[in-house]
Design brief:
alpha/beta, Rossmann fold, 2 domains, seven-stranded mixed β-sheet, five-stranded parallel β-sheet, 42% helix, 17% strand, elongated
Length: 340
């Protein structure tokens, strides 16, 4: 049976296309997405094809012709303000526009009919691997130490993959050995989809205790040439496959499409700093998110101010016995129910 269509129409091309792309790439989402930014094109398509589901902005809804839309199962309207207006159109669900895409998807799923919600392989695959992003504009914030510690604690509960995206990670010096192949080799050598890609990833994985990681880039110039599409493909393949329970990605500005990578995460940790300069950097980063309409990133972000810790020596495996570990155990317990 042909997959039913959700016709999404929003005059804001940037917002609408990103929401459409998000829904389209969620494994298990039962509807095919067609995006329109022009009301006339939507109305023509609706008259010719009669899709069963619509997701419209307030502005597009106000332009509906007198006869409305042809027969449909459910109409979803994106509101700019919560509860700012009521709609008496039948089979209509109001959804707040300025929230993370995952919440919009869940609001849609909650309203879909029973037979649509349960494809043969179930909806368990929608979630798959939980992707955890760690990013801060504040330098020397112990972002990598936090990321590795969180990964080690999560690895005690389920397979966890750690990915470092820094141009100068320091791993080779700290571990005292060469790390080849690395993340950039995976990106450029893996040409085939699905299982072949994951097989190559598995062959490259190394260990820090129970935590599995892909060796970071050995040259920042190679890292800079990895495209946004390649980063997103990596995250989506890992999520879709589900062999890892968690993926912790330690994000830097050297990632092409950094904001899109942050959008792909289920939760984002941003490390704060106590001084005025650190606070100013964080403020400017948050203002940029607002200006670029990445409110969903802000919505899924948890800000953390780490305790002051001085390492006599740096050893990844011994991080679990550091003062910082007590703090991160609390984070892992609160947000994921793991860690003791």
């Amino acid at each position: 049976m042909a997959q039913e269509v959700l016709a999404l129409c929003d005059e804001n091309i940037h917002y609408g296309s990103r929401l459409a792309a998000y829904l389209e790439h969620q494994t298990g989402f039962p509807l095919r997405i067609l995006f329109f930014s022009d009301a006339a094109q939507l109305f023509q398509y609706a008259a010719d094809t009669c899709p069963q589901y619509f997701l419209l902005s307030e502005e597009i809804f106000s332009e509906l012709p007198e006869g409305g839309l042809p027969g449909y199962k459910r109409l979803f309207l994106l509101q700019k303000q919560k509860g700012n207006w009521e709609c008496d159109t039948p089979h209509t669900t109001m959804i707040y526009r300025y929230q993370k895409a995952g919440n919009i998807m869940r609001a849609i799923l909650a309203e879909l009919e029973e037979e649509t919600l349960r494809p043969k392989d179930g909806l368990g695959s929608i979630t798959g691997t939980k992707i955890i992003g760690v990013y801060t504009p504040v330098r020397r914030s112990m972002q990598t130490s936090f990321s590795i510690l969180l990964g080690q604690l999560l690895a005690a509960a389920g397979r966890t993959l750690y990915i470092n995206t820094e141009g100068y990670s320091g791993f080779r010096t700290l571990l005292g050995r060469e790390l080849k192949p690395d993340i950039t080799d995976l990106m450029f050598l893996a040409k085939k989809e699905g299982e072949m890609f994951l097989r190559m990833l598995e062959s490259m994985v190394q260990m820090i205790g129970r935590l599995e990681y892909i060796p970071p880039a050995s040259a920042f110039i190679d890292l800079m040439s990895v495209t946004k599409e390649q980063w997103l493909r990596l995250l989506r393949e890992v999520r879709r496959d589900g062999r890892f329970s968690y993926l912790v990605i330690d994000i830097s500005e050297q990632v092409q499409g950094m904001f899109q990578v942050l959008e792909e995460c289920d939760i984002v940790y941003t490390i704060e700093g106590p001084d005025a300069i650190a606070q100013a950097k964080l403020y400017e980063y948050e203002q940029l998110l607002t200006f670029m309409n990445f409110d969903d990133i802000r919505a899924k972000t948890k800000k953390k101010r780490l305790p002051s810790v001085h390492f006599a020596e740096m050893n990844f495996e011994r991080l679990l016995y550091s003062e910082l570990a007590d703090y991160v155990r609390g984070v892992a317990k609160e947000d994921f129910g793991v860690g003791t």
